[in-house]
Amino acid sequence: MSLWIEVVELNQIPVLGARVIKTPDMDIAVFRGRNDQVYAIRDACPHKQGPLSQGIMHGSTVTCPLHNWKIDLASGEALGPDEGCSRVFPARVEDGKVLLQLIPEVTIPC
């Protein structure tokens, strides 16, 4: 069973920007791409826990504002030569609203 919850209206996220969703366990950064695709990732870089939501989005990656690590928003993986990952969450847009699946069907061990 999947649990999808509405977290924000798509138009409340700037194109190539992010909004932070606070949960009891962690903050989640929700990014909006150039073509309205959405990505949800734990708002902490695997390197020094920098706030990814404050980084620069380019394509489907974000550059951490602290030390310029590049993180793939779809997988959460750091791009080489850096290593590590941040947890990602399934996200989708439905009727102009962003929904997240907070209990992923496939858990990435990050």
Report what the structure shows.
The protein is mainly β and 110 residues long. The protein is 0% helix and 39% strand. The strands form 3 sheets. Strands 2-3-4-8 form a 4-stranded antiparallel β-sheet, with no helix packed on it. Strands 1-10-9 form a 3-stranded antiparallel β-sheet, with no helix packed on it. It has a 3-stranded antiparallel β-sheet with strand order 5-6-7, with no helix packed on it.
SSE topology sketch:
Layout: E1 4-9, E2 17-22, E3 27-32, E4 38-42, E5 56-58, E6 61-63, E7 70-72, E8 88-89, E9 91-94, E10 97-101
Antiparallel strand pairs: 1-10, 2-3, 3-4, 4-8, 5-6, 6-7, 9-10
Distance between the termini: 22 Å
Overall tally of structural domains? 1
CATH homologous superfamily grouping: Rieske [2Fe-2S] iron-sulphur domain
Q: What CATH architecture label applies?
A: 3-layer Sandwich
Shape: globular
Give the oligomeric state.
Answer: single chain
Query: Structural class given helices, strands, pairing?
Result: mainly beta
Q: Would you tell me the overall average pLDDT?
A: 92
Strand portion = 35-45%
Helix content: under 10%
Strand ordering within the main sheet: 2-3-4-8
Low-confidence stretches: none
As a whole number of angstroms, the C-alpha radius of gyration is 13 Å
The CATH class is identified as: Mainly Beta
How would you characterize the largest beta sheet?
4 strands, antiparallel
Number of E-state strands: 10
- In DSSP terms (H or I, runs of 4 or more residues), the helix count works out at 0
